[in-house]
């Protein structure tokens, strides 16, 4: 039975006013009857998941902003993890069930990818278990000619599911999803997809702090990747260099980080900013990673992160997850250089952009706890923020 949320009226009304929309405008944009919206805002009726999604989409906000506090996004996502894990159990021998047309499946996978880039983890955790099972059936029944395309769709869906598992601390599940992504990529026999798998698989080394091993793995993937001949091959190679720069920074190898950043920058200017093969890449994304490298290297390199932020900020066209990551990294640089007000402002910016991503980020918790200990002015606001992200210490 679909979940119906009560007590959401004040959240809907508050966000509507922030969006400068009338009730009639919001109802029209969300495809609701005006009377229905009025009853929801007066808490005379509850609102189901589909209704809240429509309202959030119409206002251009994260769904979690319309949920009452007991329904925090992270709780709902953790509750969905078993279903996500169960959907993987029969990946090679899926149970019978319906399968949509290839075009409909492609549309569903692309929609899920947009949720990943927009840090819409609640939607992913709810929809992906069923979608993964359906895609596994589609691959199992695919003809020889259809197999490569079906496998590519499944690999993309595994990547989207992994974004939730990894960011919400289900590391065993994340590793399993990456293995299945590798398996699906082999079924597709697409060298660009294998490059994407290498990009994603690097997170295993971030989690385990085996950064030098991760750098070697990425550099091997760079050597094996197709040479940059068009937009697809150029962006795939550039993304690998971008990722290698960050993990080199985490390994404390400033020289390697600089070389990979330079390569990524050169390639980014050939394609422009965009989302290619499910990964945001381009000059702006390289700047975000430049800040990340500077923070990882610490010390004198922090000034580079601050100088980037002094003259540039992520454009609104950049995916929400990446924009919020920029402000999370920037906050750390500002905190470590004694700019406490600016650091807190950056953390709040990250929360406004992608609350689900920001709340689960370990650096956010660490930095919020540090600011709460150090700061005296606006202590109440910082305490509220620290409680929101479950900071300790």
Describe the protein's topology.
Layout: E1 4-5, H1 9-18, H2 23-30, H3 34-41, E2 47-48, H4 49-59, H5 73-86, H6 102-117, H7 121-141, H8 144-167, H9 171-188, H10 191-208, H11 211-224, H12 231-250, H13 254-271, E3 274-276, E4 279-281, H14 283-297, H15 302-311, H16 320-336, H17 340-353, H18 355-360, H19 362-374, H20 379-388
Antiparallel strand pairs: 1-2, 3-4
Helix pairs in contact: 2-3, 2-4, 5-7, 6-7, 6-8, 7-8, 8-9, 8-10, 9-10, 10-11, 10-12, 11-12, 12-13, 12-14, 13-14, 14-15, 14-16, 15-16, 16-17, 16-19, 19-20
Strand percent estimate: under 5%
How many structural domains does the protein architecture include? 4
Strand order within the widest sheet? 1-2
First CA to last CA: what distance? Answer: 41 Å
Outline the low-pLDDT stretches.
none
Radius of gyration: 22 Å
**What is the count of DSSP helices, taking H or I runs of 4+ residues?**
20
Mean pLDDT: 91
What series of H and E elements makes up the topology?
EHHHEHHHHHHHHHHEEHHHHHHH
Helical content class: over 70%
Beta-strand segment tally: 4
Q: Which structural class do the helices and strands define? A: mainly alpha
Q: Label the overall shape.
A: globular
Major beta sheet summary: 2 strands, antiparallel
């Amino acid at each position: 039975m679909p979940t119906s949320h009560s007590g959401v009226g004040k959240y809907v009304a508050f966000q509507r006013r922030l969006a400068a929309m009338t009730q009639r405008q919001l109802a029209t944009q969300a495809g609701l009857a005006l009377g229905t919206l009025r009853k929801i805002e007066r808490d005379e009726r509850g609102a189901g998941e589909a209704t809240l999604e429509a309202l959030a989409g119409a206002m251009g906000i994260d769904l979690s902003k319309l949920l009452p506090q007991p329904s925090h996004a992270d709780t709902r996502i953790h509750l969905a993890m078993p279903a996500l894990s169960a959907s993987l159990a029969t990946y090679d021998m899926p149970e019978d069930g319906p399968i949509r047309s290839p075009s409909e499946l492609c549309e569903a996978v692309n929609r899920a990818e947009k949720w990943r880039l927009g840090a819409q983890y609640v939607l992913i955790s709810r929809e992906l278990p069923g979608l993964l099972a359906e895609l596994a059936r589609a691959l199992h029944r695919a003809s020889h000619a259809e197999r490569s395309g079906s496998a590519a769709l499944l690999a993309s869906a595994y990547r989207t599911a992994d974004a939730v598992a990894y960011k919400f601390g289900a590391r065993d599940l994340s590793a399993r999803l990456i293995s299945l992504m590798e398996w699906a990529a082999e079924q597709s026999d697409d060298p660009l997809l294998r490059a994407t798998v290498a990009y994603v698989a690097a997170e295993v080394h971030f989690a385990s702090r085996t950064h030098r091993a991760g750098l070697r793995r990425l550099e091997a993937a760079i050597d094996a990747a197709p040479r940059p001949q068009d937009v697809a091959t150029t962006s795939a190679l550039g993304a690998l260099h971008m990722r290698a720069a960050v993990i080199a920074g985490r390994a404390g190898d400033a020289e390697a980080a600089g070389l990979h950043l330079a390569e990524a920058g050169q390639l980014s200017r050939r394609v422009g900013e965009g989302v290619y093969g499910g990964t945001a890449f381009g000059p702006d994304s390289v700047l975000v990673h430049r800040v990340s490298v500077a923070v990882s290297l610490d010390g004198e390199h922090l000034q580079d992160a601050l100088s980037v932020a002094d003259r540039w900020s992520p454009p609104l066209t950049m995916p929400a997850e990446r924009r919020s990551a920029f402000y999370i990294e920037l906050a750390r640089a500002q905190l470590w250089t004694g700019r406490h007000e600016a650091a807190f402002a950056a953390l709040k910016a990250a929360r406004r952009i992608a609350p689900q991503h920001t709340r689960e980020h370990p650096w956010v918790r660490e930095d919020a706890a540090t600011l709460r200990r150090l700061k005296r002015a606006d202590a109440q606001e910082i305490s509220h923020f620290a409680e929101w992200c479950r900071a300790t210490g």
